[in-house]
């Protein structure tokens, strides 16, 4: 019983604001600091957009090897995107894959339980005729987008510094409809027009083949 409670607390504590406030000083070396939200981006949105286009086009024509040097640099968090007012309480219970964006948007990257059902339902709701508006394959063992693994990157530590960082990106409305099938993101509400929020991982230095990725789970905006 106590062991089960401890496991649940270990998952939940990172979303418990008083615990975060008390532990910020202890974890200063694993925090990422930016002076303001506008300076959070390592590379421009245009570069992210162009890179995603190159990768998805390679996947579309089944020529994965052409973009191998880029694919290693752009993992994505697969998710359902919730605005601040949308319900996520039950999906968040026991869920270690909730990502909070700078503007308060919440991203659920869990591929199990209620989160899985919500994502699949929203994805099929938004399908446009023969065109899928998001990637459902990450819910199966047969991934069609090998980049949809970003939420499994571990947090950095005192011994292992971060070599990648999270960067938010809103997919523009002019994104090619035939390539949206590779986007592992879907918005929770269909009745409010908005652009899907993606979170990509951007390298902070050159990454060697076989090297494990570490990110900062916390970005502190001054």
Number of extended strands: 10
Helix content: 10-25%
Helix count, DSSP H or I runs of 4 or more residues: 6
**Measured on Cα atoms, how large is the radius of gyration?**
18 Å
Gap from first CA to last CA: 40 Å
Largest sheet: 4 strands, mixed
Mean pLDDT: 84
In the sheet with the most strands, the strands line up as 3-4-2-7
Q: Spans with pLDDT under 50 lasting ≥5 residues?
A: none
Helix/strand-derived class? alpha/beta
Describe this structure in words.
This protein has 222 residues and is an alpha/beta fold. 25% of the residues lie in helices and 18% in strands. The protein contains six helices and ten strands; from the N terminus they run H-H-E-H-H-E-H-E-E-H-E-E-E-E-E-E. It has helices at residues 2-12, 17-23, 45-60, 68-71, 89-92, 113-125; strands at 31-34, 79-82, 98-100, 106-108, 154-155, 164-170, 185-187, 197-203, 214-215, 218-221. The strands form four sheets. Strands 3-4-2-7 form a four-stranded mixed beta sheet, covered by helices on one side. A two-stranded parallel sheet has the order 1-10. Strands 5-9 form a two-stranded parallel sheet. Strand 3 and strand 4 form a beta hairpin. The mean pLDDT is 84.
